[in-house]
Design a protein that fits this description.
With about 150 residues, this protein is α+β, with helices and mostly antiparallel strands. About 20% of the residues lie in helices and about 25% in strands. It is built from 1 helix and 7 strands; from the N terminus they run αβββββββ. A 4-stranded antiparallel sheet has the order 4-5-6-7, with no helix packed on it. A 3-stranded antiparallel sheet has the order 1-2-3, with no helix packed on it. β6 and β7 form a beta hairpin. The chain is elongated, with a radius of gyration of 42 Å.
């Protein structure tokens, strides 16, 4: 009987220690706290209006921050600098050469001229001329063989 009592005491001790081992991690686990809202910080740089408001830390003697830059008006070149140099292709698919650029009907291009770049769109190709659009204005360029 002594053996049975000792076995039952050890069995109870084993069950209790197993129970503690299983409950202990749950009891020791920290309680989950709600996550704090993420704080995002951003640097804000203000360009000073004059030297009293601030200066450039990398170039303290520079006055470029205080200079006002006027917005330059875009240069609009004259379409008179465009030259129709050739017309080719069958009547249903004509091509023109304007200032060494080949265009078809509906094509757009920025052409370089002595006065500056011009953006054009080819609207219609006729037998001896082409109708283009530039800066909202339509213009017809005629082809002459003397050029």
């Amino acid at each position: 009987m002594n053996w049975c009592v000792n076995f039952s005491k050890s069995a109870v001790a084993a069950w209790l220690s197993a129970g503690f081992v299983m409950v202990l991690p749950v009891a020791a686990a920290p309680v989950a706290q709600p996550a704090a809202p993420e704080v995002v910080s951003r640097s804000v740089f203000v360009i000073p209006a004059n030297s009293k408001d601030g200066r450039d830390p990398f170039f303290p003697n520079s006055t470029r921050l205080y200079e006002t830059v006027s917005a330059a008006q875009p240069h609009v070149a004259d379409v008179s600098a465009l030259v129709l140099k050739g017309i080719s292709g069958p009547p249903d698919h004509r091509l023109v050469i304007i200032n060494n650029h080949t265009l078809g009907v509906g094509d757009e291009a920025t052409l370089v001229t002595p006065q500056g770049p011009i953006h054009i769109r080819c609207l219609e190709i006729k037998d001896s001329s082409v109708v283009i659009e530039s800066n909202g204005q339509r213009r017809e360029l005629n082809y002459t063989k003397n050029r």
